[in-house]
UniProtKB/TrEMBL annotation:
Protein species of origin: Orrella daihaiensis
Segments forming domain FAD/NAD(P)-binding: 5-337
Keywords recorded for this protein, A-Z: Cytoplasm, FAD, Flavoprotein, NAD, Oxidoreductase, Redox-active center
Subcellular location: Cytoplasm
Protein name: Dihydrolipoyl dehydrogenase
Cofactor(s) of this protein: FAD
Enzyme nomenclature, EC number: 1.8.1.4
Family assignment from sequence similarity: Belongs to the class-I pyridine nucleotide-disulfide oxidoreductase family.
Catalytic activity of the protein: N(6)-[(R)-dihydrolipoyl]-L-lysyl-[protein] + NAD(+) = N(6)-[(R)-lipoyl]-L-lysyl-[protein] + NADH + H(+)
GO molecular function, one term: dihydrolipoyl dehydrogenase (NADH) activity
């Protein structure tokens, strides 16, 4: 006999589990279906982000950063360390434990909020009398019925044509997080967020890393000033990055991978590596959803078609996160999940795509929100710019990490903040102030007039805002 719910959420990634919890808080009877498994076959909610994305990558980035600090930077602080060794299995074990803690945390939140969890794959089985039949296949087979359905099935890594992932030599983000020995030579195709973060992890641990990027400009989506600074820093660190690359036919043997490529000047090159990470984007995951059973519309790329409110072409069927238009970011999915739950409850959920922050967790970190200087120029917007280097920030000096800057862009007439771009220590945390100011349509003067604690890295934000009006106090 079918179990009946007000809402069934298919997928327990950041968009799905958050939508389920918020809907339950609003008084709905909610079920959430998810097929991710841990190493023992048990449930592992959290989607790509928790299992093979945001969380494990940050754990390895933190561990590898410690390794680099003790090997190359502790001496600057008068700390001498001898006989440093790497226990990679323990480092990977810690990463796995961090993932498990997050999995368990989501299961606890489901129980706390009375969300019924089903471990398996969810698919449409039919529609009748304004209700949707959802079939669960997996550890817990079940038939569910619901008035509302939220699709939050996420995305999967895109393969190079003719070169499938084997997660041993040809690696997606999943395999890149589980290399069992530090490769001497590591290749990365794609200089995006995942490529740079994973390349940074293994470079710190001892790999010779080469990154090949098809785009002619490095980090084309990032403010040009910040991207140029990043390229300079990464090159100094030993991360070899080539842009404007055309990849030839890749050959793989049991011992190595050969990547023929043509550089931006048309010169033929060859890269021979032990492991190859392919990071060329992600595809919406709708396989097995049985969308055709109920007439759910997908676009030519496989994304679920939605309007500005995350509504599909079907009444009471919604979709959020990586499986719909917009940036593939966990926090974007979360915001959409909350908004949809509130819309189902008759409220007015809202997501402002103009104030969604982006972060690359390299060292230094890169973070931004709003428009870049090149976008403002292209749009013909008159603006003012102010920047402040961490080199002139007292806390950054004390930390021994003065790389980078904060850059603030404001409307030339109204002074409204149009974009903030940061490269430097803990940029991922500093960007939140900019997001807040922009949500309230604040001005650079507002940031400049707010008292920031001293000494803090956040003072660089204040100084950059002051610099918009050419009155920085410490530079």
């Amino acid at each position: 006999m079918s179990k009946q719910f007000d809402l069934v959420v298919i997928g327990a990634g950041p968009g799905g589990y958050i939508a389920a919890i918020r809907a339950a808080q609003l008084g709905m009877k909610v079920a959430c279906i998810d097929a991710w498994q841990n190493g023992k076959g048990g449930p592992a909610p959290g989607g790509t982000c928790t299992n093979v994305g945001c969380i494990p990558s940050k754990a390895l980035l933190q561990s590898s950063e410690h390794f680099e600090q003790v090997n190359h930077h502790f001496g600057d602080h008068g700390i001498e360390v001898k006989g440093v060794s790497l226990k990679l299995d323990k480092m990977l074990g810690r990463k796995n434990e961090v993932v498990k803690q997050n999995n368990d945390g989501i299961l606890y939140l489901f129980k706390k909020n009375k969300v019924e969890f089903f471990h398996g794959k969810g698919s449409f089985a039919g529609q009748a009398d304004g209700m949707y039949q959802i079939k669960v296949s997996g550890t817990t087979d079940a038939d569910l019925v619901a008035k509302h359905v939220v699709i939050a099935t996420g995305s999967s890594a895109r393969e190079l044509p003719g070169l499938p992932f084997d997660e041993k030599q040809i690696l997606s983000n999943d395999g890149a997080l589980n290399i069992d020995a530090v490769p001497k030579r590591l290749g990365v195709i794609g200089a995006g967020v995942i490529g740079l973060e994973m390349g940074s992890v293994w470079r710190r641990l001892g790999s010779e890393v080469t990154v090949l990027e098809a785009m002619p400009q490095f980090l084309a989506a990032v403010d040009e000033t910040i991207a140029k600074e990043a390229a300079k820093v990464f090159d100094k660190q030993g991360l070899k990055i080539h842009t404007g690359v055309k990849i030839g036919e890749i050959a793989k043997t049991a011992r190595q991978i050969t990547v023929p490529w043509t550089d931006s000047e048309g010169k033929e090159q060859k890269l021979v590596v032990d492991k190859l990470i392919v990071s060329i984007g992600r595809l919406p995951y709708t396989g097995g959803l049985q969308a055709e059973t109920v007439g759910l519309k997908l676009d030519e790329r496989g994304f679920v078609q939605v309007d500005d409110h995350c509504k599909t072409n079907l009444p009471n069927v919604w979709a959020v996160g990586d499986v719909v238009r917009g940036p593939m970011l966990a926090h974007k999915a979360e915001e959409e999940g909350v908004a949809v739950a509130e819309r189902i409850a008759g409220q007015h959920g809202h997501v402002n795509f103009e104030t969604i922050p982006w972060v690359i967790y390299t060292s230094p970190e890169i973070a931004w929100v709003g428009r870049t200087e090149q976008q403002l120029k292209a749009d013909g917007v008159k603006y003012k710019a102010g920047s402040f280097p961490f080199l002139a920030n007292g806390r950054a000096r004390a930390l021994g990490d003065t790389t980078g800057m904060v850059k603030v862009l404001a409307d030339a007439q109204t002074d409204e903040v149009l974009g903030v771009h940061i490269i430097g220590p803990v940029a991922s945390e500093l960007i939140a102030e900019a997001v807040t100011i922009m949500e309230f349509r604040g001005a650079a003067e507002d940031i400049a007039r707010i008292c920031h604690a001293h000494p803090t890295l956040s003072e660089a934000m204040k100084e950059a805002a002051l610099a918009v009006d050419k009155r920085a106090l410490n530079f």
